[in-house]
Every structure is written in C-alpha cells, then in structure tokens.
Specification:
Layout lengths: L1 E2 L2 E2 L23 H9 L5 H4 L17 H4 L2
Antiparallel strand pairs: 1-2
C-alpha cells in the first residue's frame, strides 16, 4: 500500500482497508491465473501452440515510481 508516494504496507488481505468509495486495479502476471483457467477446462491458445505468454509492446512514456523521484 502506498500513501502519499511512500510504500507503507504490503498486506495479504486488504479487507480492513477497503471502503465503498475506493477504486482498485490489479497488476499481475498471467501465470497467477492460468492454472485455474486450465483446471476449469479453458484452453489457453499460447500454451496449446507451445508459445510464450502474449505480450504488448508500447512506445508510451513511463514514469518511475514516486519514491524513486523523491530521492
């Protein structure tokens, strides 16, 4: 969890922090959910064709995390 640009906590459960007015997004890796999809019988095209996971290339500008800029 980040507050005012600083990492303050890395909880495994955010239930105690959640409020109805919050919006969240998840950043992750496909490896974290592929197994569950396959167990439910969903065929993943990249695995079926023996390829690596799909990736997206972008030329969009990125910014370093706030804590890097504050040093």
């Amino acid at each position: 969890m980040w507050r005012r640009g600083a990492l303050v906590e890395e909880p495994h459960d955010i239930t105690r922090h959640w409020r109805d007015d919050l919006v969240a997004f998840v950043i992750g890796c496909s490896f974290s959910f592929e197994e569950a999809l396959m167990q439910d019988g969903i065929e993943l095209r990249h695995i079926a064709s023996g390829r690596n996971v799909p990736m997206r290339r972008t030329s969009g500008a990125v910014q370093p995390p706030a804590r890097s800029r504050d040093r």
